[in-house]
Specification:
336 residues; alpha/beta; Arc Repressor Mutant, subunit A; Rossmann fold; 3 domains; 7-stranded mixed β-sheet; two-stranded antiparallel ribbon
Length: 336
């Protein structure tokens, strides 16, 4: 490029803009490639080491006419530093290589969620709204969301450790138990704890049952598929929890929901609720957008709004504590 061309771009204010945009596009392409490698099975195929093109073509091409397309896709992965050429053929690199490690599964799921869920949601929401349409919960992969939500696991465990007793009989109701990991953590800290996990999506409930069986906790923990709003408080619990799912309920129904949950809490027991709140990071704003545009769900609450709702629902004392400095992720405790 000639200096005169650079100078012209600089005068028009395009040079820095072009650099920033191309950098952002590169990041977008890279995350998209990593998500595609995850979704297609390429990560698993290469997790054990490099493979020659012919082996990959046998697995991922319908016929020889598709070979050029696969080569182009693999070449893009190399350009994005998500793949590399090694002895024996193509091998994983970058994020994709790290995502094959089990302890990074939540991060892998977040990338998959951003590309396959957040991207189309951000892109298509204005058109949906102009047509009077909303997203549906069935449009989303519940297992993927359960996996990605585990990125909050250290903070959730911190909230549990700060609130739950470590000894003595405790009966727990977890509303929206997801993978079952938080019930398992609470049970591991207190051998006297027993629990009922309630999960809205049957497929996720089955995943939680299997996980808890694998962890040797089936004797103390049961999992049901169902909607808490349709369950009568025939049994009361020492602790009721609602982790990261208040936005699954419409704003206008939340007071009635909290009153209903209070019916499950023994006198002297408490509700522990965690959620992102209004005004946080881009990730929390994506969650706010999801809730506000999905049928049957609702936007994120503000901190003061949720504390006020808990008190209005009849809880004698309610307080909020920040779990993530620099963002709006909070734990709310409310005592009956």
């Amino acid at each position: 490029m000639k200096l005169s061309t650079l100078a012209d771009l600089f005068r028009k204010g395009q040079l820095l803009l072009m650099f920033n945009l191309l950098t952002s596009v590169g990041h977008f392409y890279r995350l998209t490639f990593a998500a595609a490698a995850s979704k297609s099975g390429v990560l698993e195929a290469l997790a054990g080491g490099s493979l020659p093109f012919e082996r990959l073509a046998d697995k991922f091409c319908r016929d020889a006419a598709s070979h050029d397309g696969l080569r182009a896709w693999l070449q893009m992965g190399i350009s994005l530093k998500e793949l590399q050429l090694a002895e024996g053929g193509y091998a994983l690199a970058g994020y994709s290589k790290k995502f094959t490690q089990p302890h990074n599964d939540a991060l892998r799921a977040i990338v998959d969620e951003v590309v396959t869920l957040h991207h189309p949601m951000i892109l298509e929401t204005p058109e949906f709204l102009s047509q009077g349409k909303q997203w549906e919960i069935g449009d989303y992969d519940g297992e993927l969301i359960a996996r990605s939500s585990r990125i909050l696991e250290p903070l959730q465990k911190e909230a549990i450790a700060g609130a739950f007793p470590t000894s003595g009989p405790v009966r727990l109701l977890e509303v929206g138990c997801g993978s079952g990991v938080y019930i398992a953590y609470a049970a591991g800290r207190n051998p006297g704890l027993s629990a009922l996990g309630l999960e809205l999506q049957p497929r996720v409930a089955e995943m939680a049952r299997q996980n808890l069986a694998d962890w040797g906790l089936s004797d103390r923990i049961q999992v049901e598929a169902g909607d808490i709003r349709h369950k009568s408080p025939s049994e009361t619990f020492d602790i009721v929890t609602l982790y990261n799912n208040i936005y699954y309920f419409p704003v206008e129904e939340r007071l009635d929901l909290l009153k209903h949950l209070r019916g499950f809490v023994k006198p002297g027991g408490f509700l522990l609720l965690t959620t992102y709140c209004q005004g946080g990071s881009p990730g929390s704003e994506a969650l706010n957008l999801w809730g506000a545009t999905t049928s049957g769900c609702g936007r994120l609450p503000s901190v003061d709004e949720l504390v006020a709702l808990l008190r209005k629902a009849g809880f004698g004392r309610a307080q909020a504590a920040s779990l993530m400095p620099g963002d709006k992720f909070y734990a709310f405790e409310a005592w009956n």
